[in-house]
Specification:
The relative contact order is 0.12. With 624 residues, the chain is α+β, with helices and mostly antiparallel strands. Among the domains are: 201-342, Beta Barrel (Elongation Factor Tu (Ef-tu), domain 3), CATH 2.40.30.260; 460-551, Arc Repressor Mutant, subunit A (Orthogonal Bundle); 566-623, DNA polymerase, domain 1 (Orthogonal Bundle). Strands 1, 2, 6, 7, 8, 9 and 20 form a 7-stranded mixed β-sheet that branches. It has 22 helices and 20 strands. A hairpin with a 6-residue loop joins strand 16 and strand 17 (306-310).
Length: 624
């Protein structure tokens, strides 16, 4: 009954947290209400997407499991934003949600140092502001030096379907009341309410797909994990199509005429809804002039017996759900297997956390996932692995791993949460990352693999592959740099055929790569040495060349900012005594208590001028 680390909750955050802690050599316990639901995908049967795909790739680079499970359980793989720049493309996979859950549970059960217990944590054991363990509904008492809470939507969860309300953390599963009270009363954490939702699931055999637009996967699918063999994956992966349908005027009238029964509008739901994944009733209310909305019909398993109607999340009454679904072309005879619902739950203000995801008030207590105000499997998993890593490092009496904003989307995610907080479910977007040119999906292993290797989460063999990839890309980029612009007939003819004016002061290769219409074969005619690399490395070299100037510019900006990164703000620093700062800025700094000037710079509303003033006062305080 004694452990080094206890993880509460078997969702995506809990899986990554417990695996990381155990693989770092710590005796770890994962407590889940239902053992068979470890790794359940409660909402949509998909992993990744814009910016979310970046999180999964970074998670994989650190030694996480989500990418590997997705590659095995995936039933369709697509790169989103293919026509846009590499920095804003996103990998997305439809998954067999049943298979995903089984694989995830089996990984947990077969990991050394990791135990799984089916039980419900009712309270935390806290002594002198330090975590000591947990107590459960079965009257078990488990002791541990570190506890990680990954409770998802289960804290005081209430399910809404029209006027009907049910207590639950997920449909058909009980909620957690005691743990929520313990976090508030025993730990004195500031808590509030959020809302999220899901859509109806339809019997596939009752849908007429022939009148819908088919959306297949990529012809040459790319795996999520850097550890998956790319060629074998492409040769053997079977994919299923998705379909696109649309709402119409009739659909909208049905929804509008039932606004008075929508829990979202009647005051029945008090929690804040996700802005970027709204319910269909919220869309119709906010965009009354829009004639139609996309609906993506996605298979939930390889057997394709149920369809998830992405874009039709709702908490309207069952009869209204039936009417609006039957109004959609191709779904006139649709049979609903599971009705959509909304769920309202407690979360902890993430400003209660340090960047390590340890709570500021209770030593040894970490929070990860939706309990911190995020939405999405990917955001949860990213927090989970960081909480597990930092709990493990703390047990080794080492400094926590804090990823910077210029290092990883994970760094952006956590920094946004703990410095700015959130009053609505937080979702990751590429626009949140100011250094996204440096944070492309395909560079995640090169950027972060050394951390995973140092922690013992990435094998020596895999790390050698990462180093080899980095060396090849660097050698290719150097080759492009050395090929300075020298006019010749072949190259000038190539430029003329593209109807472009030559760019100055860049290499021949970069001239070609900088153009939107460049392709690999034309490039090889200029730089035949590149032909020795495989297509994947070749493409990465060309991308590096295309963005070289912009990357250099961002790198210079980061170097200028790094002088602030090392400046620590003394603990207990009196921000109200800093002359020259507005009262609003003083209040924000006092509320967030940023540990460094870099953290202060990332607080919404804090200007560079305010940072300069603060820097001066810190230096003055140090001299005194």
């Amino acid at each position: 009954m004694n452990y080094d680390v206890i993880v509460v909750g078997g969702g995506h955050a809990g899986i990554e947290a417990s695996l990381a802690a155990a693989r770092m050599g710590n005796k770890t316990l994962l407590v889940s209400m239902l053992a068979e639901n470890v790794g359940a995908t409660s909402c949509n049967p998909a992993i990744g997407g814009l910016a979310k795909g970046h999180l999964v790739r970074e998670l994989d680079a650190l030694g996480g499991e989500m990418g590997l499970i997705t590659d095995e359980a995936g039933i369709q793989f697509r790169i989103l934003n293919q026509t846009k720049g590499p920095a804003v493309r996103g990998s997305r996979a439809q998954i067999d949600m049943d298979k995903y859950r089984v694989i995830a549970r089996n990984v947990v059960l077969n990991t050394p140092n990791l135990d799984l217990a089916q039980d419900t944590v009712e309270s935390l054991i806290v002594e002198e502001q330090e975590i000591k363990g947990v107590r459960t509904a079965l009257l078990n008492e488990y002791r541990a030096k570190k506890v990680i809470i990954t409770s998802g939507t289960f804290l005081n969860g209430i399910i809404h379907v029209g006027e009907v309300q049910q207590e639950g953390g997920r449909f058909g599963e009980p909620r957690s009341v005691g743990l929520s009270a313990s976090l508030k009363n025993d730990c004195d954490l500031n808590m509030a309410r959020l809302k999220t939702g899901t859509c109806a699931r339809i019997d596939s055999s009752s849908i007429d797909f022939s009148v819908m637009e088919e959306q297949g996967g990529d012809e040459l699918p790319n795996p999520f994990s850097f550890r998956t063999d790319r060629e074998n994956f492409r040769a053997t992966k079977k994919q299923l199509p998705c379909y696109i349908a649309y709402t119409n005027e009739t659909t909208h009238k049905i929804i509008e005429s039932n606004f008075y029964r929508a829990p979202l509008f009647t005051g029945q739901i008090a929690g804040k809804s996700p802005r970027y994944c709204p319910s269909i009733e919220d869309k119709i209310d906010k965009f009354p002039d829009k004639e139609r909305h996309h609906l993506f019909l996605e298979p939930q398993t390889m057997d394709n017996t149920e369809i998830y109607v992405n874009g039709l999340s709702t908490s309207l009454p069952p009869e209204v759900q039936r009417d609006m679904i039957h109004s959609v072309k191709g779904m006139e005879n649709a049979k609903i297997v599971r009705y959509g619902y909304a769920i309202e739950y407690d979360f902890v203000d993430p400003r209660e956390l340090k960047h390590s995801l340890e709570t500021k008030k209770i030593k040894g207590l970490y929070l990860a996932g939706q309990i911190n105000g995020t939405t999405g499997y990917e955001e949860a998993a990213a927090q989970g692995i960081m909480a597990g890593i930092n709990a493990g490092l703390a047990l080794q009496e080492k400094e926590p791993l804090i990823l910077r904003r210029d290092e990883a989307y994970i760094g952006v995610l956590i920094d946004d949460l703990v410095t700015k907080g959130t009053n609505e479910p937080y979702r990751m977007f590429t626009s949140r990352a100011e250094y996204r040119l440096l944070l492309r999906e395909e560079s995640a292993d090169v950027r972060l693999g050394h951390y995973g290797h140092e922690l013992g989460l990435v094998s020596d063999e895999q790390y050698e592959k990462i180093k080899q990839k980095a060396q090849q890309i660097q050698a290719g980029a150097q080759l492009l740099e050395e090929l300075k612009f020298t006019p010749n007939k072949e190259f000038n003819a190539l430029l003329a055929s593209m109807d472009e004016q030559p760019l100055k002061d860049v290499s021949t290769a970069q001239q070609l790569v900088a153009r939107k219409t460049f392709d690999v074969q034309k490039m090889i005619t200029i730089v035949p040495e590149l032909d020795k690399y495989d297509d994947y490395i070749k493409n990465e070299i060309l991308v590096e060349g295309k963005y070289a100037r912009y990357v250099d510019k961002q790198s210079q900006e980061i170097q200028r900012m790094k002088k602030y990164l090392k400046v620590k703000i003394p603990e207990g620093f009196n921000f109200t005594g800093v002359s020259g700062l507005s009262k609003e800025v003083q209040e924000k700094l006092a509320a967030f208590s940023p540990p460094t000037l870099q953290a202060a710079m990332n607080i919404s509303g804090i200007t560079p001028a305010a940072i300069e003033i603060l820097h001066i006062y810190i230096r003055m305080a140090a001299k005194k």
